[in-house]
Amino acid sequence: MLYFLVKRHLGKRKMKITYYGQSCFLFEMGGTNVLLDPFISPNPLASEIDIDSISCDYILLSHGHADHVADAEYLLKKTGATLVATFEIVTWYQKKGIENVHSMNTGGKVHLPFGTVKMVNAIHSSSLPDGSYAGSAAGFVIQSADKTFYYAGDTALHLDMKLIGERYHLDFALLPIGDNFTMDVEDALVAANYVNTKKIIGMHYDTFPYIEIDHVEALELARRQQKELILMEIGQTIEL
Ligand code: NI
Ligand code: MN
Q: Which residues surround ligand 1, an ion (CB under 5 A)?
């Protein structure tokens, strides 16, 4: 009995999450560093971040827009990290000389050393910085030994999120809250209900005038719905 209690307790280790602005996060899962949607050097809000200080083993891209991929080529080449993205995005990076890749598509899952990554749908557009077709925009459900979480990418609120709530026990979800290009806070709170989590890390806000939000109002809206909305500082690391 004690063994199971201890195992259960140890089964979910804490995970380190660092925020680099817009929708870019570094997740430390076991000994593996996974970076999502790197847009750092062109982001004036992230001017304090030295991208050369970032070490990563995998880079996952939710879609091809510049505010998600701006630093991907540089970091892939510098770190030798493996790129995980749609077939179209991967093909585009292969032409730029990126060799460590894993391509997938919506609905598919891959087992990687840190856990499984399932590519789920997002309602959004997707093209690469030169206008090339990038496939569908996507989100990810990531299951590691430490935690299970949903990274929504850029998306509208959609009912398919309920499938995620049915199929997974999420510890938290990273949801866009900046409105205009994606969900706003109110939609994100509905999304949190659909995916069945109380813990939301906000993303895709404040970077441009179109997506500036009122933090106090957003936090109050979440509080009233008994949700924990986390608005991380750029450069901050938290453990969940
Ligand atoms: Ni986008
Ligand atoms: Mn975006």
A: 65, 154
Ion ligand 2: residues, Cβ under 5 Å:
65, 67, 154
Domain ranges of the chain: 16-239
The CATH homologous superfamily of the domain defined by 16-239: Ribonuclease Z/Hydroxyacylglutathione hydrolase-like (3.60.15.10)
Q: Give CA angle at 154 (213, 207), nearest 5°.
A: 35
Q: How far is CA 21 from the centre of its chain?
A: 11
The amino acid at residue 88 is E
CA of 3 to the centre of ligand 2 (A): 45
Over residues 190-233, the pLDDT tens digits come to 999 999 999 999 999 999 999 999 999 999 999 999 999 999 99
Q: pTM for this one? A: 0.95
